[in-house]
Design brief:
Agglutinin, subunit A; 5 domains; five-stranded antiparallel sheet; 25% strand
């Protein structure tokens, strides 16, 4: 009988052990520590907690990551500053409800603790990983799980998850802010911080440490000013709460979508969404960085506009404080009132403006119940009040926001909320805007001044128009037709660029001397030139026989003039004179990538670190075009010949003549006129005329494989088969011989892992179906990470036969594809 009992107990023990091992555990008890190698999983299996090593690092960290997403995507790290050097880490809960992580099997060597101030001993404290990604500690003895002992959401890292509060608890003083990792391999606190500043009316800042570099426009009751209204989208909703207890921002998902907001190690703030089919993180939105997003570039009372070649200007009624600095392009000193304010004068005005992101609100006060009229009176009574506006735009506007001292960080936007700025009456008499109680004596003065000012304005306006007509007639250069059908370039596009006279360009190029010619493309010849100040330029001259170049000229003016990125060539100016149409660019010392890459002698000098640097730069440039630029651009002619190299071998994408603007991540268009270069065009574009951002991804993949191999895709030949470069790379990949694609000249300089990763990424980019290709954001992340890559599918156009078939189809459907030539 005793033996029977022992057997029964043993059987039940085995069954219990099997069941306990097969079921996912979502909590940690005081007597059940978690060792390195073991994990706990949230109830819905969304998140997992345990020890991990980031990127290339061998250090071990306690963290939380997505359970079923590959590669591992970490959302929270406990011991960011104190890594464990081996796999001896242990995680446990103490009887006081404190979380501890220690190493080396020695509980006295504490690596990290939850830092909870113990007030009493708890009956049964438990750590539980919730399906929100929040690690919480509560006492299971009590039913009310809202009374938390501790939660990880109060101590965020670099990731904002849905439901997480981002701001300040005014009762406890606890601040919830985000800090970047140092690098993809090091989760310790990096350079950048993303926080809610609660001084004045709360607002969101991004900065390096405590030094602000970018400010998000203040919350207007619906969304952040200057940012598209987030609550109108079907994916998530946002809220910004300001009350006597707490101030915080939070977003919640409306669907089963998986999203996160991350402060990248390079300072970019991105909202990423999981593509569940491909398991890729796709950029849903990001904080756009441009010339005006930097904090306060135009100084006090200055306004910034990215639509102008000179971004800074003074607000109405203000003038540069130090004119010499402004002329030299240094706007940091800002502006000052043209006429000094005198608070005692009852005729001080408030001038109304709109179309701007409101100034920094750290020197402000607010009242939620005041009307706009009451707000004006409050500002008028305080001599230090410089502006006022409604706090909230809902229901026609409500509440009062008052600014004191200088107005900083004003920038142009599409926002139409009105801001009222205090000015002297003499500056506003001609504006016809009066926002004060008009007493009889004051009204008489105002009307007199206004009538006189209007008369002067009318006379000045007529004179100015007459002078402009005479000026245009004399120069005869800004209203010329662009082609034989009298297509005219819109003046508003050209005015954003400096104008160069034909005389200056002739001097710079020695009258377009053939010896200064450095290239030629569909647009026309390109010349090297030197300006009077010694600056070297590249001069692109439209050929009289070019038909495609007419459209290219206008496209370049419209597109590239508004784009600013280190990996895009910079357009310096233009010239139109009679039949001449000329574009002026910065000069690239090392010319185009194809001039080096496909030259046997020069190509041997292009070592692997330089090639890998070029691949990275091109990827970042295309990513900017697709997602980070104001316009959002599909290039449509990405190729080695359109990649220029500066003196330090930094790549710069050029030739935007065929580029097209688009809106939205999945934008696609169709055309009957397919333009581009054989060997780089995607199949859906070449055969059906459909182009999208994935068309550029295909072209980028071709360029990557050409950079690695040193061979052109178009015209590639091999003694063993008739495949082109794409087919050859695919054949080697299937045979696990991808390294053989590498140019022989790279043997002494290559990093094999980088070469193989580049080839793999290139093959992912040239997959036949557009939906299989990664986005450029994924490409950039894949190039800089060490995680596993998805297997590529068969590429398009992997044989020369397939190209010939497309040639026939193109001819039948009257599509136009340009031949391969330098530009």
């Amino acid at each position: 009988m005793e033996l029977y009992r022992i057997i029964i107990v043993l059987i039940f023990s085995i069954i219990f052990f099997i069941l306990s091992c097969s079921a996912a555990v979502d909590r940690v008890y005081i007597n059940q520590p978690i060792k390195d190698g073991n994990t706990i999983v949230s109830d819905g299996e969304m998140y997992e907690l345990g020890f991990f090593s980031p990127g290339k690092s061998k250090n071990r960290y306690l963290g939380i990551w997505y359970r079923n997403i590959s590669p591992c995507t970490v959302v929270w790290v406990a011991n960011r500053q104190t890594p464990i050097k081996d796999a001896s880490g242990v995680f446990q809960v103490t009887t006081e409800g404190v979380l501890l992580s220690h190493s080396g099997g020695n509980s006295n060597t504490i690596i990290w603790s939850s830092n909870f101030t113990v007030s009493s001993r708890h009956v049964n404290p438990v750590a539980k990983l919730l399906d929100s990604g929040n690690l919480v500690v509560w006492d299971e003895y009590y039913r009310n799980k809202e009374e938390l002992i501790w939660q990880s959401f109060d101590y965020p890292g670099d990731t904002i998850l849905p439901g997480m509060k981002f701001g300040k608890d005014l009762i406890t003083g606890r601040e919830r802010y985000f800090t970047s990792w140092k690098s993809p391999d090091d989760p310790s606190i990096g350079l950048y911080k993303f926080w809610v500043d609660t001084n004045g009316y709360p607002q969101v800042f991004l900065g390096e440490g405590e030094h602000e570099t970018l400010r998000i426009g203040r919350w207007n009751g619906v969304g952040f000013q200057g940012v598209s209204v987030e609550n109108m989208n079907p994916i998530f909703s946002t809220e910004f709460v300001v009350n006597e207890k707490e101030i915080y921002y939070r977003y919640k998902l409306k669907s089963t979508t998986v999203q996160r907001v991350i402060l990248m190690w390079d300072g970019m703030v991105r909202r990423l969404q999981l593509n569940k089919r491909t398991q890729e993180w796709v950029e849903y939105a990001n904080v756009v960085v441009d010339a005006c997003s930097r904090y306060g570039p135009c100084g006090p009372f200055g306004s910034c506009s990215i639509k102008s070649s000179v971004p800074c200007s003074c607000l109405e009624g203000f003038e540069p404080k130090v004119p010499e600095e402004w002329k030299a392009g240094d706007w940091s000193s800002g502006c000052q009132p043209k006429k000094p304010l005198d608070c005692r004068t009852p005729a001080d005005f408030f001038y109304k403006i709109s179309g701007v992101v409101f100034p920094d609100t750290r020197r402000s006060s607010y009242n939620e119940s005041m009307s706009l009229g009451e707000c004006e009176m409050a500002c008028r009574r305080d001599c230090s009040c410089t502006a006022y506006a409604n706090l909230n735009i809902r229901n026609g506007g409500s509440g009062c926001l008052l600014w004191f001292d200088d107005l900083l960080d004003v920038r142009e936007s599409d926002d139409h909320q009105e801001l009222y700025i205090r000015m002297a009456i003499s500056e506003l008499a001609a504006k016809g805007q009066f926002s004060f109680n008009k007493k009889k004596g004051v009204l008489t003065v105002v009307l007199s001044v206004s009538i006189a000012a209007l008369l002067l304005f009318a006379v000045a306006y007529v004179c100015r128009k007459k002078m402009k007509r005479l000026h245009k007639k004399g120069r005869g250069s800004r209203a010329h037709t662009l082609d034989k059908d009298h297509m005219t370039v819109q003046m508003e596009n050209l005015d954003e660029l400096p104008f160069f006279s034909l005389h200056k360009i002739r001097e710079a190029t020695d009258n377009f001397n053939i010896n200064n010619k450095i290239g030629e493309g569909g647009f026309g010849p390109v010349y090297k030139g030197v300006l009077e100040n010694g600056r070297v330029i590249a001069v692109k001259r439209l050929s009289e026989t070019s038909q495609q170049g007419l459209d290219e000229f206008q496209n370049e003016v419209i597109c590239i003039a508004k784009l600013q990125h280190r990996n895009l060539v910079k357009l310096l100016g233009y010239c139109i004179h009679e039949n001449e149409r000329i574009l002026i660019y910065e000069y690239m010392d090392n010319k185009s990538l194809d001039s080096l890459l496909f030259d046997e002698t020069k190509g041997s000098l292009l070592v692997w670190p330089q090639r890998f640097h070029i691949i990275h730069g091109i990827a970042r440039g295309v990513l900017y075009l697709h997602q980070d630029s104001l316009l959002q651009i599909i290039h449509r002619d990405l190729k080695a010949g359109n990649i220029l190299l500066d003196s330090e071998m930094n790549p710069k994408i050029s030739d935007f003549g065929l580029a097209r603007k688009f809106v939205g991540q999945d934008a696609m268009a169709k055309t009957k006129k397919v333009v581009g270069t054989h060997g780089y065009i995607s199949p859906e574009y070449a055969v059906h005329g459909r182009f999208s951002i994935k068309s550029d991804v295909f072209s980028f993949g071709v360029v990557v494989l050409e950079i690695v191999s040193g061979k052109k895709n178009r015209g590639f030949s091999h003694e063993a088969h008739s495949d082109n470069l794409l087919g050859h790379a695919w054949r080697l990949h299937k045979e696990d011989k991808s390294i053989e694609l590498m140019s022989a000249s790279l043997r002494n300089s290559c990093v094999v892992s980088e070469v193989l990763r580049s080839i793999h990424v290139g093959l992912l980019c040239v997959q036949h179906h557009a939906e299989d290709r990664p986005t450029m954001l994924s490409v950039v992340l894949m190039l800089i990470s060490e995680g596993a890559l998805p297997p590529p599918k068969q590429p398009a156009f992997f044989t020369e036969e397939s190209h010939r078939e497309v040639d026939i189809v193109s001819s039948l459907e009257k599509y136009t594809i340009t031949l391969l030539h330098a530009r």
